[in-house]
Write a structure and sequence with these properties.
The complex is a heterodimer. Chain A is of the alpha+beta class. Chain A contains three helices and seven strands. The longest helix of chain B has about 35 residues. Classes of the chains: A alpha+beta, B alpha+beta.
C-alpha cells in the first residue's frame, strides 16, 4: 500500500478521535436550575447580587468567601467559593463560577470575572475631581 | 471638541511630527514593497536594478520613519506630556524612568511599533546579506510591514452607513480621543494626571519579555518571506538553503520569548506554575511548534530535495498563525477566557483582514505553483531518516493544531453568534487536563522518533540483516536503561498513572540515544550537536514537567478547617499565619516574622524551618513575598511571590490574603464602621474589665511612642498608657492610644491588642481635659531680670538667658525680623524643661510668639522688654487640668490585623524543566551559529 495514503489515513483517524474525545470536555454555560438537576460540575454565568453581603473573613478562614449571584434566568443563589477573594471582585461586571450544588448552595472551586475595561470616557472627569 | 478654546501648556509639535512620520512610514513601505515586486519580476536587467534601488530607498525611509515615531513617543512619554492620550494612558508622575520601556509597549500601538522596529532591523540585514534573494524576500517582508504600518494610521473609512477605523494613531491628543467636560477648561492639563502603568507590569520581566517575543515574531516573517519569494519567483529549491539559518534563529528566539513568559508567570505572578494553558500562552506556542515542524522538513529538503511543499506550508502556516494570535489577543474576542489580553481597540476587522490576506496569498502561491514543483519519483523509505523526520513534523503539526483549535473556541462561538445571536457560547470545562491529555501522546511520539531517527541515514533505502539486528538491539538496550532510570526515579516521585511512566521511559530513551550519539557518532563535536542538544533538552524538559507537575506539593494546606464541606482535593491552599506564631504544616514550621514597606511595595518576611526528631532546626530559610499597592495607594493591586530555590526543588510562596483593613481603603472604612465602641472615662489608676482580662490606666504621656506617630509632624500630642493583665497576671501588655494635634487638626492613633480582639481609641474630648485654647487662658505677668526666677502654681521658672538659634516651632522667619528668644528653665520630675518664648519686631511692630510645654501645661510669652532697666516681662498661663480624665472608646471582638494568608507550594525537580528547555533552545543556536559560518551555509 502507498505510504502517503496510509499516513493520510492515520492522520484522519487520529483527527477524528481527537475531535470526538476533545469535544466531551466542552460544555455550554448552565444556570442554577440546570445545576440542581445534575451531579456533575457545571459552569454558571451571571452577575454579582449587590443586595446581599459578600462575606470574606480571612482571619477565620482565608480559603472561603461567599456571595450571592444572579444567573441569566434571574435566579439568585448563594455561592461559596473555596479560595481567597480575588482583587476587584466587587467591581466585576460578570462572573463565571465552576462547581456544583450542595444543599441548595452552589459550591464553586473556580471563578472567572470580567471587570470593566480600564479606560472609560468618564474616567478623566472623575480623576480631575478627586 | 470645541476648537475655539486656546489650551494652556500643550506642546503640539511632537504630535504633528509624529503624524507626519506615520504617514511617511506607510507610504514609503508601500512604495518599497511595490518597487521590490517590480524588481523581482525582471531578474538581472538594468531596470530591475533601478527598481531594487528604489525599493531600498523606500525601506530605509520607512525604517527611519519608524525610528522617528518611536523617538517622538519616547520623548512625549519621558516629558510626561499628558495632552497625548498614549502618555495619559500609560505614564504617571511617579512612574520610575526604568519602567518607561514597559509603559511604551504596554499599549497596542507601542507593541506594534516594537514589532515594526524588529522588522526594520531584520529587513536591513536581509537587504545587506541576501544577495540575489533581496528583491523578492524584501517585497514580501515589506508587504507584511505595510499592514503593520496601517495599524498606526488612525483614519476612519466610511463604507455606506458603516464607519471603519483603520489603525490607531499613538500621537493623538487626549482631548481628541476622549470627550469629557474637563476639556471646556483651557487649563485642563493642570488638573489631570496619568493613569500610569498597571502595577502588575511594573517589573523587569515586562522590560525584557516583550522585546524578545516580538523579535521572535518578527524573525518568523523572514522564513515566510523566503518561502513566498521562492514560490513567487519559481525558484522552488533555491530558497531552501538560505532560509534555514533564519528559521533556526526564529525557533531559538521565539522559544526564548515563550520561555521567558513562563519564567515571568512562575517568578512574578501568583499562578503557581510556569504554564497555565492560557490562550495567549498557547497562541505564542503554536507558531513555534509549526516552525519547528518546518525546520525539520527544511532539513529534509536540504538533504534530499523532498518536502519542499511541506516546508512552504509550515513556514507560511506558522506565520499566519502568528498573525492569528495577534488577532486573538488584540481584538478582544478572548474576552474573559484570558488573563492577559489587550484592551479592545476597535481594530477587529483590520486584524481579520491581516490574517485572511496572508492566508490567501500563501494558499494561492501553493496551489498555483503546485504542478511546477520538481517531483520525486520514489517515496521515502521507512529506513530513511527523512521519513521519520517527516512523521515527526506531522506530530508537531498535530500538536499545534489541537492547541489552536481548543484555543479558538471563543472564535467559533463568535461565528455561531452571527447566525444565532442568543447563543451563550461554549467553554472548555477544565482546560489544563484537556490540553495535557493530548499533548502527553505528542510528547511520547516525539521522544521516540527523536531518539530513533538520528541513527538512521538520509536516503537510506533498506537495511541488511545485521544492520537491522544492531539497530533493534541498540533500541532495546536504550529502552531498558530508560525503564531502569524511570524505576529508580519512581522510588522518589509519584507517577500517578501508567501514562506518565510510559512518557518518562520515552523521555529517557531520547536522552540516552542522543547522548550516545553525541559521544559515539559526533565524537563530541559540539558545533554539530545542535539537534542532539535540541532533542536531549526536549526529553529533559518533558521529564521536568512530569516531576514538578505531578509532584507539586502544597505546603500551606490547612486540612482541618474545610473538612467535610469540600472534597479532599480541594482543601484550602491558603494558610493563615499570625505574626510571631509558629505553625506546623506539611513538614515545615512556618512563621510570619514581620513586614516592611518600601514605597508602594509591602514585603513580608516569612521563615520556614525543618526540625529533626530532637527539635533541632536542620534546615531553614526566609522568603520575602510582597504585595503591591495601586498607583493611588488605596488598595492592593498585585501580589508578587518569592521563591526559595534549591537544586532539587523550589518552594514558591505568595501572599494570598491580608486583613481587610489593609487590602482596601474603602473596605477598611467599612470594617471600622462596623466596630461597636463603648465610651469609658478613666482617671489614672482606674481599672476596667473585659471578658477575662483587666486593664489599668497607668499613665498619661506627652511623648507618645505609638509606631505610626511621627513627633516631627505633631505640634502637641497626648497618649494614655493602658496596661492589660489576665486575672492570673500571666498576661501583661501595655498599649498607648494616642492623639496628636497638627496644624489645628486632631489625629487619632488607635491601639490594638490582636490576641484579645481589643481596639482602643483616645477620644478627641480627652484633649480638652489637658489643653486649653488661647481664649480661655488666664495670663499672669512677671517682670524679671536675667538670672532671676519666679513661681507659678509651685513651679519655679528661671530666665537663664537668651538663645540666638531659634528653636521655637511657632516662629516662621521673614526678612528684616528682629527676634529675641528667651530661655526659661524649670526642673520637673528630675528632668529639665526649657521654654523658648520669642519677642519679635516685624515691620516696626512688636509682638510675642508663645512657647508651650505640654508636660507642665505652661504657656509662656515674652511680652515686653525694658532695655534701660534690663527687665523682661513674661506672661504665663496654665492649661486647665482640673479634671484630668481620659476618655477612651473601646471596641471588643475586633478582627485581627496581624496575620496574612499565604500559599506555599513545593515544586520538586523544576530545575530539570528549566535546564531541559534552555538546552533545547541552545540546540537551535548551536545549529544557527554553525550555519552562519559561510562555508556550510
Amino acid at each position: 500500500m502507498n505510504k502517503t495514503y496510509l499516513i493520510s489515513f492515520i492522520c484522519i483517524v487520529v483527527a477524528i478521535v481527537v475531535i470526538i474525545n476533545g469535544s466531551s470536555d466542552v460544555s455550554t454555560y448552565s444556570t442554577f436550575a440546570d445545576a440542581t438537576k445534575t451531579a456533575e460540575e457545571v459552569k454558571v454565568t451571571g452577575e454579582l447580587n449587590l443586595d446581599e453581603d459578600i462575606v470574606y473573613q480571612p482571619d477565620i478562614d482565608p480559603n472561603v468567601f461567599s456571595f450571592h449571584m444572579i444567573d441569566k434566568n434571574g435566579e439568585s443563589k448563594k455561592v461559596i467559593m473555596k479560595q481567597s477573594k480575588p482583587q476587584d471582585f466587587e467591581r466585576s461586571e460578570s462572573i463565571v463560577v465552576t462547581g456544583e450544588i450542595m444543599d441548595d448552595v452552589f459550591v464553586a472551586d473556580e471563578i472567572l470575572m470580567k471587570c470593566p475595561s480600564k479606560y472609560k470616557d468618564d474616567e478623566i472627569r472623575i480623576r480631575a475631581e478627586s | 471638541m470645541d476648537n475655539s478654546i486656546n489650551y494652556i501648556g500643550e506642546t503640539l509639535w511632537p504630535g504633528q511630527l509624529g503624524h507626519f512620520f506615520i504617514l511617511l512610514s506607510f507610504i514609503s513601505i508601500a512604495f518599497s514593497s511595490l518597487s521590490y515586486f517590480l524588481a523581482s519580476k525582471r531578474i538581472d536587467s538594468e531596470l530591475s536594478n533601478s527598481w531594487k534601488k528604489l525599493g531600498r530607498i523606500g525601506f530605509i525611509t520607512h525604517s527611519l520613519s519608524v525610528l522617528s515615531i518611536i523617538g517622538i513617543l519616547f520623548y512625549v512619554m519621558s516629558q510626561l506630556m499628558y495632552e497625548y492620550a498614549y502618555v495619559f494612558e500609560h505614564c504617571s508622575d511617579d512612574l520610575p524612568m526604568r519602567y518607561i520601556f514597559s509603559a511604551f509597549w504596554e499599549g497596542q500601538e507601542g507593541s506594534f511599533l516594537l514589532w515594526m522596529f524588529w522588522h526594520c532591523i531584520l529587513g536591513l540585514i536581509v537587504l545587506k546579506t541576501s544577495k540575489s534573494w533581496e528583491s523578492p524576500v524584501m517585497a514580501f517582508l515589506a508587504l507584511v510591514e505595510i499592514v503593520l504600518a496601517s495599524m498606526l494610521l488612525g483614519i476612519y473609512i466610511e463604507v455606506g452607513d458603516m464607519v471603519y477605523k483603520m489603525g490607531s494613531n499613538p500621537t493623538l491628543l487626549l482631548r481628541d480621543v476622549f470627550n469629557a467636560p474637563i476639556f471646556q477648561n483651557a487649563d485642563y492639563l493642570a488638573s489631570i494626571k496619568g493613569d500610569g502603568l498597571n502595577p502588575l507590569l511594573q517589573n523587569y520581566w515586562m522590560t525584557i519579555h516583550p522585546p524578545t517575543l516580538f523579535l521572535g515574531f518578527a524573525s518568523c516573517t523572514i522564513p515566510f518571506a523566503y518561502a513566498a519569494a521562492g514560490f513567487y519567483t519559481r525558484q522552488y529549491t533555491e530558497w531552501i538553503n538560505p532560509v534555514l539559518k533564519w528559521a533556526l534563529f526564529s525557533c531559538g528566539i521565539l522559544g526564548i520569548g515563550i520561555l521567558m513568559g513562563g519564567a515571568w508567570a512562575y517568578e512574578a505572578l501568583t499562578f503557581g506554575g510556569y504554564w497555565a494553558w492560557d490562550p495567549v500562552e498557547n497562541m505564542s506556542l503554536v507558531p513555534w511548534l509549526i516552525f519547528v515542524a518546518g525546520l525539520h522538513t527544511n532539513l529534509i529538503a536540504k538533504s534530499t530535495g523532498r518536502a519542499v511543499k511541506s516546508t512552504f506550508t509550515y513556514y507560511t502556516l506558522g506565520f499566519v498563525l502568528i498573525l492569528y494570535s495577534t488577532y486573538l489577543t488584540r481584538s478582544g474576542v478572548l474576552g474573559d477566557t484570558s488573563v492577559h489580553s489587550f484592551t479592545d481597540m476597535g481594530l477587529e476587522w483590520q486584524l481579520i483582514f491581516l490574517v485572511l490576506f496572508f492566508a490567501i496569498v500563501s494558499i494561492y502561491l501553493l496551489f498555483s505553483r503546485k504542478n511546477e514543483i520538481p517531483k520525486q519519483l520514489t517515496e521515502e523509505s521507512i529506513y530513511s531518516r527523512e521519513f521519520w523526520m517527516f512523521i515527526g513534523a506531522l506530530v508537531f503539526l498535530f500538536s499545534g493544531l489541537i492547541i489552536a483549535t481548543s484555543t479558538s473556541l471563543p472564535v467559533f462561538n463568535e461565528i455561531v453568534r452571527i447566525f444565532k445571536p442568543e447563543f451563550d457560547g461554549s467553554v472548555i470545562n477544565d482546560p489544563i487536563p484537556h490540553y495535557n491529555k493530548f499533548q502527553i501522546w505528542i510528547a511520547v511520539l516525539l521522544s521516540l522518533i527523536s531518539g530513533t531517527a538520528i541513527y538512521l541515514r538520509y536516503r537510506a533505502n533498506s537495511m541488511n540483516k545485521s544492520q537491522k539486528y544492531s539497530f533493534l538491539i541498540r533500541s532495546m538496550i536504550y529502552l531498558s536503561i530508560a525503564a531502569i532510570i524511570t524505576f529508580i526515579f519512581g522510588l522518589y516521585i509519584d507517577y500517578w498513572h501508567w501514562k506518565y511512566i510510559l512518557l518518562s521511559v520515552c523521555c529517557f530513551y531520547s536522552i540516552i540515544a542522543n547522548s550516545v550519539y553525541l559521544i559515539t557518532k559526533l565524537k563530541g563535536q559540539l558545533k554539530l550537536a545542535g539537534s542532539v542538544f535540541g532533542h536531549f533538552g526536549f526529553g529533559l524538559m518533558i521529564f521536568g514537567t512530569i516531576v514538578s507537575g505531578l509532584n507539586e506539593r502544597i505546603i500551606s494546606s490547612n486540612p482541618f478547617v474545610m473538612q467535610g464541606i469540600v472534597k479532599d482535593e480541594d482543601l484550602g491552599k491558603v494558610i493563615k499565619l499570625i505574626k510571631n506564631e509558629r505553625i506546623f504544616s506539611e513538614g515545615y514550621w512556618i512563621s510570619y516574622i514581620g513586614d516592611t514597606i518600601d514605597n508602594k511595595t509591602r514585603y513580608f518576611n516569612i521563615s520556614f524551618e525543618i526540625e529533626d526528631a530532637e527539635k533541632n532546626v536542620v534546615e531553614s530559610f526566609e522568603v520575602r513575598p510582597n504585595v503591591l499597592f495601586s498607583n493611588d495607594l488605596t488598595k492592593v493591586a498585585a501580589s508578587n511571590p518569592d521563591t526559595k530555590h534549591y537544586l532539587d526543588k523550589d518552594i514558591f510562596v505568595s501572599v494570598q490574603s491580608l486583613p481587610v483593613t489593609q487590602m482596601d481603603v474603602e473596605l477598611a472604612k467599612n470594617a471600622e464602621d462596623s466596630l461597636k465602641y463603648v465610651k469609658t472615662t478613666l482617671s489614672i489608676g482606674d481599672t476596667i474589665f473585659t471578658k477575662d482580662k483587666y486593664a489599668i490606666l497607668e499613665y498619661i504621656s506627652f511623648n507618645p511612642k505609638h509606631k505610626d506617630f511621627n513627633a516631627q509632624e505633631s505640634d502637641i500630642a497626648l497618649a494614655a498608657g493602658i496596661r492589660f493583665h489576665s486575672l492570673d497576671k500571666t498576661y501583661n501588655q501595655i498599649i498607648e492610644p494616642t492623639l496628636s494635634l497638627n496644624q489645628s487638626l486632631l489625629y487619632q492613633f488607635p491601639a490594638q491588642l490582636n490576641d484579645l480582639g481589643i481596639k482602643i481609641k483616645l477620644n478627641d474630648e480627652t484633649f480638652n481635659n489637658f489643653f486649653s485654647i488661647e481664649d480661655e487662658l488666664q495670663y499672669e505677668e512677671f517682670e524679671i531680670k536675667q538670672g532671676q526666677s519666679f513661681n507659678i502654681d509651685g513651679i519655679q521658672l528661671r530666665l537663664t538667658g537668651f538663645d540666638k538659634k531659634i528653636v521655637n516651632k511657632n516662629y516662621i522667619a521673614e526678612e528684616n525680623d528682629i527676634t529675641i528668644q528667651a530661655v526659661l528653665t524649670s526642673t520637673y520630675n528630675d528632668s529639665i524643661i526649657i521654654l523658648n518664648p520669642i519677642y519679635l519686631i516685624r515691620n516696626n511692630t512688636p509682638s510675642s510668639i508663645k512657647a508651650h510645654n505640654a508636660e507642665l501645661g505652661i504657656h509662656a510669652r515674652l511680652s515686653h522688654i525694658d532695655p534701660v532697666a534690663e527687665e523682661f516681662t513674661f506672661q504665663i498661663a496654665r492649661d486647665n487640668r482640673k479634671n484630668p480624665e481620659v476618655i477612651l472608646d473601646i471596641a471588643e471582638n475586633v478582627p485581627r490585623t496581624d496575620f496574612i494568608g499565604i500559599e506555599a507550594i513545593e515544586f520538586p525537580g523544576i530545575n530539570l524543566f528549566w535546564l531541559g528547555a534552555v538546552l533545547m533552545l541552545l540546540g537551535f543556536f548551536i545549529s544557527w551559529g554553525f550555519r552562519m559560518q559561510s562555508k556550510y551555509a
